[in-house]
Amino acid sequence: MLKKIKIWAKKLKCQIFTLYFACRDERVPWYAKVFIVCVVAYAFSPIDLIPDFIPILGYLDDVILIPIGIYISLKLIPDNVIVDCEMKAEEMMKNGKPKNWIVGSLILMVWLVIFIWVIFKIYQLIS
Known about the structure:
With 127 residues, the protein is mainly alpha-helical.
């Protein structure tokens, strides 16, 4: 069971790299690029929408949202582009995963706004 999960995770990582290269390819339609950029940026973000330390919910984005985004993205890309990008992805996997600190910063700001809003609401209840 654990071996199957590791194989699935490695395949998922390769697909993210494939999408990373596909969003830079001129043969991919613009609407697909917009969606792919969102999926890849979120996957490479060092900060999750739902933090991993939250029991069960923390891993739902990694286990559900990213695979669904990858699936939809791959359906939007022409087959010949996928083949070309898969070769590039295999090469890049040897070097490690890039980080997207811009998206990570945006997610951090969303959490900060939520935190400030909660504090404000608690203050209103106390006053």
